[in-house]
Structure formats: C-alpha cells, structure tokens
Amino acid sequence: MAAPPGAGPAALRFAAAATWQVVRRRCVEHFPRVLEFLKSLRAAAPGLVRYRHHERLCMGLKAKSVLLLIQ
C-alpha cells in the first residue's frame, strides 16, 4: 500500500504539533481527531510509544470527552 501524497515526515510533524496544541488548550471538541491521530500513529510506528502509555492516553481523552457530554 502506497503512502498518500504529502504524507512525509513534515506532514507528520505538522499533525503532531496540531494535536499537541489541541490537547494543551484542552479543546475537547477536537479530542476525537486526536484519538484518530494516535491510532494512525500507533499503526504506522508501533514502537514509538509504549502500549500502556498509548492506552492510558486514549482512555483519558475518551473519558474527558464523555464528561463533557454529561455536563
């Protein structure tokens, strides 16, 4: 499977920086995008982040999203 056009290291850095800004600013409405990015990053580079850290981060983002829906 070929990589999509523009999916080089620069695009990955840009996506990571945008994701970090969403988390840092606590923009909960964009947390599903962050989760999608984390899943795709885990699929592309499985050894980059430990499984346990990845799952804890995903679980925390999902919990925060659910709490926002409840409020």
Question: How do you describe this structure in short?
Answer:
The protein has 71 residues and is mainly alpha-helical. The chain is built from 3 helices and no strands.
Structural write-up:
The chain is mainly α and 71 residues long. Helix content is 72%, strand content 0%. The protein contains three helices and no strands. It has helices spanning 9-25, 31-44, 51-70. Helix 1 packs antiparallel against helix 2 (31-44). The longest helix is centred in the last third of the chain and has 20 residues, at 51-70. It is globular, with a radius of gyration of 13 Å. It starts with 8 loop residues before the first helix and ends with a helix. The relative contact order is 0.12.
Beta strand count:
0
Spans of 5+ residues with little confidence (pLDDT < 50)?
none
Range of helix content: over 70%
What is the number of helices? 3
Largest sheet: none
- Cα distance, first to last residue? 43 Å
- Beta-sheet strand percentage? under 5%
Helix-strand sequence = HHH
Instruction: Give the integer mean of the pLDDT values.
Output: 88
Structural class: mainly alpha
Radius of gyration, Cα only, in angstroms? 13 Å
Shape: globular
